[in-house]
Amino acid sequence: MSISKLKTKAGVFLFILSFFSLFTACGIYSFSGASIPAGAKTISIAFFPNKAPLVVPSLSQQFTESLQDIFSSQTQLILVERNGDLQISGEITDYSILPQAISGAGAGGQQTGQLNRITITVNVRFVNKLEPDKDFETTFSDYTDESSDVNLDNPTSQIDIINDKLVENIFNKAVVNW
Fold first, then answer.
1. Residue closest to 163 by CA, chosen among 77, 53, 36, 69
2. Which positions ≥6 away from 98 have C-beta within 8 Å?
3. What is the DSSP letter of 152?
4. Smallest Cα–Cα separation from 144: which of 167, 161, 168, 122?
5. How many CA atoms lie within 13 A of 147 on its CB side?
6. Residue 167 near residue 134, CB atoms below 8 Å
């Protein structure tokens, strides 16, 4: 093997080594972009009670499980019941269904909604025991618009869509730091 090939292989090796050392210098990173403090091993995510005026019975459980799932699947943190290195708690503060577009008068002269907006709002408290300057308390809100033919008595798929967006935003604020 020639000297130039050895230099090339050594250069590639050093590049790869320095690339990975960047990721370990500031904490633990994952391919999701999460930046977890180096000493953090656990996360506790408390049950989010539904304190909204309009209550969907499954919303609290669904939201809490979605939040736990994203941290379990996109980080190496171990989910514990309480006192994790990172802690998330809060409550669902609003769930609403409001008409966004009104159609002309129907039978009896009443206007009907053509488009309904389903909104969920949650208040979130994040505690980072290792880096307290990253603690926050923030309200997150998101929505989806649905046509009036969608059954809003059982809005499970709409709640799933909103939960996914809310959970991603909370995850990003807590550990992605973008």
1. 69
2. 116, 117, 119
3. T
4. 161
5. 1
6. no
Buried b (16+ CB within 10 A) or exposed e, 4-30: eeeeeeeeeeeeeeeeeeeeeeebbbb
134 and 86 Cβ atoms separated by less than 8 Å: no
115 by DSSP, 3-state: which?
strand
Q: Which residues pair with 96 in a beta bridge?
A: 119
User: Terminus-to-terminus CA distance in the chain, angstroms?
Assistant: 45
Summarize pLDDT for 40-97 with one digit per residue, the tens: 999 999 999 999 999 888 999 999 999 999 999 999 999 999 999 999 999 999 999 8
